[in-house]
Amino acid sequence: MQLPGRPPCVIKQLRPSSAEPEIFQMAKALFEREAETLGRIGNHPQIPRLLDYFEESQQFYLVQEYVQGLNLHQEIKQNGPYSEAGAKQFLSELLPIMQYIHSQQVIHRDIKPANLIRRDPDRKLVLIDFGAVKNQVSATGTTNAQTSSQTALTAFAVGTAGFAPPEQLAMRPVYASDLYAVGVTCLYLLTAKSPKDLGCDSTTGEVLWRPHVSVSDHFAKVLQTMLEVSVRHRYKSCAEVLEALDLEPYMDSLAQDCSLNPQPRRI
Predict the structure, then answer these.
(1) Range of the domain at 93
(2) Given 110, 122, 217, 252, which residue is catalytic?
(3) Does the pLDDT of residue 148 top 60, yes or no?
(4) Distance (Å) of CA 71 to CA 37, 90, 177, 190
C-alpha cells in the first residue's frame, strides 16, 4: 500500500484472542508495549521501520515500511542453492542483525527464508515479521479457561514447524532459539530442501542433514552446534557463532601445516 506523499507500507492486522473487556484491555496494553519495541528496533537499517500502530473496532494494526526485493525462499527457487561460501556470507550478514535485536532484549521467534528479504537495490538482507507482537497479543487469552489449551498453543508457540526448536515449542524461547532457526535456514540455503524433506530422528528430534550437505568439517561442526536439539549444547549467542566462523581459516592453516610437517614418531 502507498499513500500520496508517503513511503510504501505494509499493514498487518492482529486480532485479540478474546473480546472480553478485561482481556481486551490487557491485550491492548501488551500490543502497545510490543509495538513500541518494534519502533525501537526499527532504527536498525536492516529492520523495517514501524511507521504507525493503532486500534480500530477491537483489532490492532501495525503499519511498517515496505521492503522491495525477493525473500530468500524465492531467491533459492529462482537461482538454486548456495555454496558453502555463500552460506558463510549469509551468516556474516545476518548474525550482526541478530546481535542487535538480542541486545534490545528481543527474540525474533520466526526466522526462516521467507522472513529474510534481499533488498533492492542495495542487496542487503532485511529481517522482517517479528513474532513478539503476535505472541503478546494472543497470550492474554490464556486466562480464559474454556480456550486456554488452544490459545496457549497459538500464543507462545510462535514460529514455523521445522525451524522452531523444542524449547520454543514448549513456550520457553531464549536467544539461542533464534540461532537454531538460523541454522535450519542455512540448511535450506545449502540444499533448497525444507526441514521436513531432510528428515528427522524420531527419537531425538535431530534434523538428519549431513547426507544432504557437502561442506568442510569445520563448517559442519558450526552448523551442528547451531542445530543442537538441547539448548545447553547449542551456541548461546551470535558472537559465539561469529567467533567459530572466524576460527576456520586458522584451523585450516594449522591442519595444512601439520600435514606438510608431520611430527617424528617417538620410539
Answers:
(1) 9-249
(2) 110
(3) no
(4) 24, 13, 21, 15
